[in-house]
Amino acid sequence: MKKTIILLILTFTLGVNAQEVKSLTLKEAINYALENKADAKKAKLQVENGEYEIQEIRSRALPQISASGSLNHNPILQTTVIDGAGFGAPGTTIQAAFGQKWSSGAGITLNQALYDQSVFIGLKAAKSTREFYQINAQLTEEQVIERVANAYYQVYVTRQNLNVFDNNLKNTNKVKDIIKGQYDNGLAKKIDLDRILVRISNINTQRQQTINAVQIQENSLKFLIGMPIETKISIPQTEFEVTANALSQTPDTTTRTEYLLLKKNEQLLQFQKKSVQAGYYPTLSLTGSYNYIGQGPEMPWFKKPSDGVYWSDYAAIGLNLNIPIFTGFGTRAKVRQAENKLQSIKVDLEETKLSLDLEYENAKTQIDNSIISINNQKQNAQLAQEVLTNTNNNYIQGLASLTDLLDAENELVAAQNNYTTALLDYKLAEIQLIKSKGELKTLTNK
Q1: Which UniProt keywords apply (predicted)?
Q2: CA-to-CA distance for 235 and 161, rounded, in angstroms?
Q3: Cα–Cα nearest to 172, from 413, 380, 415, 381
Q4: Which of 78, 90, 201, 422 could form a disulfide with 85 if both were Cys (CB 3.0 to 4.6 A apart)?
């Protein structure tokens, strides 16, 4: 019996915890996404990978050291025909075999670049490569912030629409109770009661559809921020306030992340062009090697001269100079390709700046229009509420028909939904305005 009671308590406790609702502000949603969303994680990994690429470039300027070893068995030695005069037998030829049946060697080699333009340019490009990945990670974060903010406000508005249907259902049920009382007392027609019941059924259908929409949008939001889908969330009312925005000064779009990323890419392409042009320059490197070799009729390992095996060492130090003279115009073609890419990205920079300027102007215009629409819809919703209140009083007193009452309810619902839609349009335009000013990261502090 005790075990059953404990099990029931645990089940109830787990059920309560499973239904615990997490209050989620916009700031919390964005920061959660930046920590957990795959796009943000991959951007950080790209920055880390960029460091490894830089290390790879730097390695070309460091000494390259390698070791080698070999063991060879020659079952049949190659013979060479030589003049016997050198051996005291002029006029004859001698067929002699050179080498030993077995040979083994080990050595170490060093190669150090002394002058190589491509290496020097690569070292200069390393810093720009790091900055490129950092800017790209910043752009990815801004894209995550924008998507999360848009989805967040979509959820809020749909929930507001659900509140509208809840209030409408509550008011319509009150009217139903009045009509039912009147009908029971013979003061109302059955058709009036049927009409109000149909009205309630329609509201319930719309309400259920809105509940489904809220659930789908919340799931989309949780996916966007990397939150477990089963988590219950709520959005505070204070998150949807209309605030003033600085619209007087046009922002410098050349400081936008999208533009900076293209500029950094342009710089990398300039380094790439210089790296290709380095093919016209000579290269100079220092080489050194040290080797140890053993030869004899038997496998040389662990053998001595008494076994017919002799070991010796040798070393070499040298300079390698390579001067390109003619490459079949291949280097020239590569340089022209690099120049073509630079010209292309300059066009992209002009187009991007124009697009960013347009984005700001459109967002500013949308903000102005949305504020006007919000004020108009707010007044319209207040007026629709007054009309409904007066129509409801008149209906109770028999001075208005049921049709007038239902029409007044419909108008109020439409006015309230239009108001929340205007708020959504404003908030979406506000996000675009913040983005066009390059200030999306400020949403992580609100």
Answers
A1: Cell outer membrane, Coiled coil, Membrane, Signal, Transmembrane, Transmembrane beta strand, Transport
A2: 14
A3: 413
A4: 90
Q: Which residues of the chain have a pLDDT value below 70?
A: 1-19, 238-241, 243-249, 446
Cα 93 from chain centre = 79
Q: Which of 370, 353, 359 is nearest to 435 (CA)?
A: 359
Tokens matching residue 372: 């006007």
Predicted confidence at residue 105, as pLDDT, reads: 94
| DSSP structural state of residue 78 | P
Q: How many residues are given for the chain?
A: 446
Give the max Cα distance, the chain. Answer: 149
CB 435 within 8 A of CB 427: no
Phi, psi torsion values for 406, nearest 5 degrees = -65, -40
Helix axes 402-436, 117-184, angle to 10 degrees: 170
Closest CA to 252 of 9, 60, 75, 439: 439
- Cα-to-chain-centroid distance, residue 286: 45
Give me the amino acid identity at 202: N
C-alpha–C-alpha distance, residues 31 and 145, integer Å? 9
Structure tokens at 62: 């460091």
> Nearest-5° angle of CA 394, CA 395, CA 400?
75
Containing H/E element for 135? Answer: helix 117-184
Single pTM value for the model: 0.77
pLDDT tens-place string over residues 260-301: 999 999 999 999 899 888 888 899 999 999 999 999 988 989
Name every residue whose Cβ is closer than 8 Å to that of residue 161 and which is 6 or more positions away in sequence: 210, 417, 420
- Residue 84 carries which side chain, given as an amino acid letter? G
| CATH code linked to domain 24-73+117-281+324-445 | 1.20.1600.10
Average pLDDT value over all residues in the chain = 87
CA distance 43 to 241: 32
Give me the pLDDT at residue 7, please.
46
- Which tokens is 123 given? 């070292």
Measure the CA–CA gap between 122 and 411, rounded to whole angstroms.
Answer: 69
Least Cα distance to 94 among 113, 81, 106 occurs for 81
Would you state the structure tokens that stand for residue 230, as one six-digit string?
Answer: 């089963």
Q: What value does the CA radius of gyration of the chain take, rounded to a whole number of Å?
A: 41
Pairwise CA distance, residues 414 & 420, whole Å: 10
Tokens of 355: 């697009």
